[in-house]
Amino acid sequence: YYVIPMMDEVEYAKQREYLISEFEKWQQVKNAGKMDEGSSVYEKNPQFNLFNSIAHERFKIIDSNKDNIF
Length: 70
What we know:
Blueprint: H1 3-6, H2 9-30, H3 40-44, H4 49-64, H5 66-69
């Protein structure tokens, strides 16, 4: 959220790649799929699933509108 008001497209690209990798790990736990050591953090904290779900949906909206933003 701090990158968009700053109009920093380079930082957005870095954050986007990081979020994509973290959401993939989270999805493994959420869907009880193949889990690796990176996904264990999400398995240990199931109380954050609601917040992760909201963040994931917001990220999808922002990512779909990135051409309009930058």
